[in-house]
Specification:
This protein is an all-beta fold. Helices cover 0% and strands 26% of the residues. Strands 1-2 form a two-stranded antiparallel ribbon.
């Protein structure tokens, strides 16, 4: 299960997303982690999961801090 999730409708690209404890799943605190893996999936039908995605990308071991910025490149 993911620690945090956010869903956005496709609009103007590129765009930025900020994940906080408010995006937490199942009571897990994002702020309590020192590093995270980020996975991005884009689907036509809005359903999660790689099987539904037409574009995806990831960034591994992203250090958590107020100044952290991660760039995720999407590919088919």
């Amino acid at each position: 299960m993911p620690t945090a999730v956010s869903r956005y409708a496709i609009g103007k690209w590129p765009f930025s997303i900020t994940l906080t404890d408010a995006n937490s799943m199942a009571g897990q605190s994002l702020s309590a982690l020192s590093a995270v893996d980020i996975e991005v999936q884009v689907s036509r039908n809005g359903q999660p999961g790689l099987v539904n995605s037409v574009l995806s990308g990831s960034a591994s071991n992203v250090t958590m801090s107020d100044a952290t910025e991660a760039v995720v490149i999407l590919s088919p």
